[in-house]
Design brief:
Largest sheet of chain B: 6 strands, parallel
Number of strands of chain A: 0
CATH class of the largest domain in chain B: Alpha Beta
Number of strands of chain B: 10
CATH architecture of the largest domain in chain B: 3-Layer(aba) Sandwich
Largest sheet of chain A: none
Shape of chain B: flat
Oligomer: heterotrimer
Number of helices of chain B: 14
Number of domains of chain B: 3
CATH topology of the largest domain in chain B: Rossmann fold
Helix content of chain A: over 70%
Structural class of chain A: mainly alpha
Chains: A mainly alpha (230), B alpha/beta (398), C mainly alpha (207)
Number of helices of chain A: 6
Helix content of chain B: 40-55%
Order of helices and strands of chain B: EEEEHHHHHEHEHEHHHEHEHEHH
Radius of gyration of chain A: 28 Å
Strand order of the largest sheet of chain B: 7-6-5-8-9-10
Order of helices and strands of chain A: HHHHHH
Shape of chain A: extended
Chain lengths: 230, 398, 207
């Protein structure tokens, strides 16, 4: 039997090798990278499959077998689940329409309820409330009001960039045209600011990941060398 | 894809005539979104459903390439990788036939790249980058990432942190001693470098205040992540009494909506020992969300937090703290401003400041210096490419 | 029948869930909870289906002697081994070993590589050709500076600017984006619930 420290050492060497294999992509596409990438796909999907079987499906199978009278509906879920798996075969794929229909119906209604109650209504209400962060509380009243108005105009301008279709030859259509113009000008400018903020956030996030990997390489190399007595 | 005004056939962007009836596509009024396939008005800027920026109708742009801006970057050796990565995530974290209509802003790097490609002009006119320039850029990035490992400067004196850090501290202080807290580890190992520090600080605080911690995840790899983190921390907590791994909850919105019921019917067995939840004193004491004082969600993306707010915070009015990746913070700002989130903290920069504020020490400036280096690199790249672009245009003009 | 039953299932399930949002009736709540649990189990099966598709896809690669099929072999070998370890010895050290020393380094290294890609995007796409590009670039640089840890210690003015930027340009315009996206989501949900759109049967009516 292997000692625990040997297993850990093998793990560290394996992790080091796989990290470096992924980083070889920087010098171009190569077989080492392809190997690591395929291993990633295989092991990760295997891990997730095992997790789903063990956490979601298996406990419910046990309950169904142990107390069928109480958990009879799990049997129904499993039949629907098997029908969903039939999607993988050409001859039987129509069977999956029923569970997919249920999934979409449930998903759409949950999304509808959640979006209305969690985003649309609270965010619209927040638009009407001149908002201030804690540090802005020291501002004079006119500045707070101006801030609130700017928030309202800014949000409406960005919303105008969506261009929901309305007939252009009605009073509502005229408003729609004005709103669209606001969207094309101020709205577009604000969207560029957001994109800049999101891009900066993405760069900071990826930078942190790279620093983390370099730190891992530094620590692991010194640990492996130390354990090997080099 | 352009929709023929005469026969409704979908034709590729850039086509002049319909492949089915031969009608001119100059009259087309609708186009299909390259991301989700929804039919939008040809003048729309965004897809009304998934918010992908649509190619402008009146600009003379080679629109055929815009939908694949990631693939279009032929100079980038990582293009293949970025294709492989979203595929892997799609395969594993979003079930095929996912029921939620997508409605997210372009937060991913591909979305941002698509947006940037819109304003930068035609992709075919963009010069390809030389091998030397590529090496220089990669060297610059590596150098910037090495700075935090090499430079350890810690000035004396207290650190002043961003407002979100104080918001989080206040939010944590507001949790009563011994109260139950639900912590969701909705991030995979890829984002551990960003979120582990925040998670550690949170768990240490909860352990010090004798809080009862229930741990779950809506990310397939989140529970393993939580287990790994707990194993590295020496917290004075006993499994089953002070903390409990509830488990992984699939189903996105539907799963979170289900969480409003009893935990025992959602998770059945605990994640760690695979025993019925009833066997643990903590699970018998805290049976549902109504007995939980606070929800803390650690997430690598903004959409997960949005789902939590819509499905859990909104109906229960529970206080919720979001600790997210830096890339997700701007997206969630409106929820913080509307007080739907008690606190919103993003990325490692906030974690470093939080650490310094908690300990009352100076900040290790290594990471800050590295980030300064990266900022300068991006600025330099933009200036050089602009000059290059102008000189090429000038030559073409002549 | 191939379409009618799935459409009916989608509409009925949707109505039950929506009704549960609107009224507090115990039996309706139980029915909605059963449906939601069913959706969670079906989501689990959907993941299984996705992975079976992955296996089938790679199996076809090998069968058809596609170039690069050795990668498919790696997937076809590593996937079942991981499933076997995960289901047979779920809490074992072997499963933890696979996660710690194989999944984690691969995933984190792939994530870290994205920085090179993200910076190269700037090279390719950020020449300052017009006003919009200048706004985007300036915004990016300002926000990067504001991300620097400890930047608030330099001057209280920076902290104030950061707060204002997040409250106004970012907060306001992100709220506009959220509202627009929310309206889109509501419309898309209503289209599914009213069966104007039937993605589960592959049919979309033209409207």
């Amino acid at each position: 039997m292997f000692a625990a420290e040997h297993i850990e050492l093998a793990g560290l060497v394996c992790a080091l090798f796989l990290t470096l294999a992924i980083f070889t992509r920087l010098i171009g596409d190569n077989k080492l990278f392809r190997f690591a990438q395929s291993l990633f796909v295989g092991v990760t999907s295997g891990y997730i499959l095992a997790l789903v079987l063990r956490s979601v499906i298996w406990p419910r199978i046990l309950l169904l077998v142990q107390q069928p009278a109480q958990y009879w509906y799990y049997g129904l879920y499993f039949v629907l689940g098997l029908m969903l798996l039939a999607r993988g075969l050409r001859k039987t794929n129509a069977l999956a329409n029923l569970p997919l229909g249920m999934l979409f119906g449930i998903g759409a209604s949950v999304t509808l309820g959640g979006t209305l109650a969690g985003t649309l209504i609270p965010q619209t209400r927040a638009l009407a409330t001149p908002f201030t962060t804690t540090s802005l509380n020291t501002w004079p009243a006119w500045a707070l009001l101006l801030n609130g108005v700017l928030v309202l105009v800014g949000a409406l301008a960005v919303l105008g960039a969506f261009r929901f279709t309305l007939p252009s030859h009605s009073p509502v259509g005229f408003l729609s045209t004005v709103w669209s113009w606001l969207g094309r000008t101020l709205g577009r400018g604000l969207i560029m600011i957001i994109l800049g903020a999101l891009y900066a956030g993405a760069l900071v996030s990826f930078y942190t990941l790279l620093v983390g990997r370099f730190s891992f390489l530094q620590q692991t190399i010194s640990e492996v060398l130390g354990r090997l007595g080099i | 894809m352009l929709v023929c005004a005469k026969c409704s056939r979908l034709n590729p962007e850039g086509a002049n005539t319909c492949s089915a009836c031969g009608a001119s596509l100059a009259e087309a009024k609708y186009r299909a979104c390259p991301t989700c396939g929804t039919i939008n008005s040809i003048r729309d800027m965004f897809c009304f459903r998934c918010l992908t920026l649509l190619p402008p109708a009146d600009d003379q742009i080679d629109t055929a390439n815009i939908g694949d801006s990631a693939a279009d970057i032929d100079l980038d050796p990582l293009a293949a990788l970025t294709h492989a990565l979203p595929e892997a995530q799609l395969d594993f974290t979003v079930p095929p036939g996912s029921s939620r209509p997508p409605h997210t802003a372009p937060t991913g790097i591909s979305g941002i790249a698509t947006a940037i490609s819109q304003i930068s002009g035609p992709s075919h006119a963009q010069p390809s980058i030389s091998r030397v320039a590529k090496i220089l850029i990669y060297a610059g990035v590596i150098l910037a990432a090495l700075i935090p490992l090499l430079a350890h400067i810690r000035p004396s004196g207290a650190t002043s942190a961003r407002e979100s850090v104080y918001g989080l501290l206040q939010s944590l202080e507001d949790i009563p001693q011994g109260a139950a807290v639900l912590v969701s580890f909705d991030y995979g190992p890829a984002y551990a470098a960003e979120l582990d520090s925040l998670a550690t600080l949170i768990l240490q605080h909860l352990a010090e205040h004798s809080n009862k911690v229930l741990i779950m995840s809506t990310h397939p790899l989140g529970m393993a992540n939580a287990e790994r983190l707990f194993s590295t921390l020496d917290l004075p907590m006993e499994y089953g009494n002070n903390y409990l791994y509830l488990g992984y909850l699939p189903g996105e919105e539907s799963g979170l909506r289900l969480l409003l019921g009893e935990f025992g019917s959602v998770f059945i067995y605990d994640f760690f020992k695979q025993q019925s939840l009833d066997t643990y004193p903590l699970a018998r004491e805290i049976e549902s969300l109504s007995q939980v004082q606070r929800v803390i969600v650690l997430s690598e993306d903004a959409v997960t937090i949005q789902r939590w707010i819509e499905q859990v915070q909104s109906p229960t009015h529970l206080s919720m703290d979001a600790l997210v990746s830096a890339s997700a913070e701007p997206y969630l700002t409106p929820y913080y401003l509307s007080r739907q989130l008690s606190s919103l903290t993003g990325g490692l920069p906030a974690a470093l400041e939080l650490q310094a504020v908690q300990k009352g020490t100076g900040l290790d400036l290594g990471f800050s210096l590295g980030l300064v280096g990266l900022t300068l690199l991006v600025a330099l790249i933009t200036v050089v490419t602009t000059i290059n672009d102008f000189s090429k245009r000038h030559k073409q003009g002549r | 029948m191939r379409k009618t039953i799935p459409i009916a299932a989608a509409v009925i399930c949707g109505i039950v869930i929506i009704a549960d949002y609107l009224v507090q009736v115990p039996w309706l709540h139980t029915a909605a909870a059963r449906l939601l649990e069913g959706a969670v189990v079906l989501a689990g099966f959907a993941l299984v289906l996705g992975i079976l598709n992955l296996l089938a896809f790679n199996f076809r690669h090998i069968r058809d002697h596609t170039p690069g099929r050795w990668q498919s072999w790696i997937i076809l070998i590593s996937l079942p081994i991981t499933v076997l370890i995960g289901t047979t010895f779920p809490g074992s050290g072997a499963f933890t070993w696979v996660y710690t020393y194989v999944v984690t380094p691969l995933m984190t290294a792939l994530g870290a590589l994205l920085l090179f890609y993200a910076v190269t995007v700037a090279v390719r796409l950020l020449p300052l050709r017009n006003g919009a590009a200048i706004i985007l670039f300036a915004s990016c640089l300002v926000f990067m500076i504001l991300w620097i840890p400890g930047i608030s210690s330099v001057s209280p003015f920076i902290a104030a600017v950061r707060n204002w930027l997040y409250a106004l340009p970012v907060g306001a315009s992100m709220r506009g984006l959220l509202l627009g996206a929310a309206i889109g989501a509501v419309v898309a949900s209503l289209r599914i619930l009213s069966s104007l759109e039937q993605p589960y049967t592959g049919i979309t009516e033209k409207h």
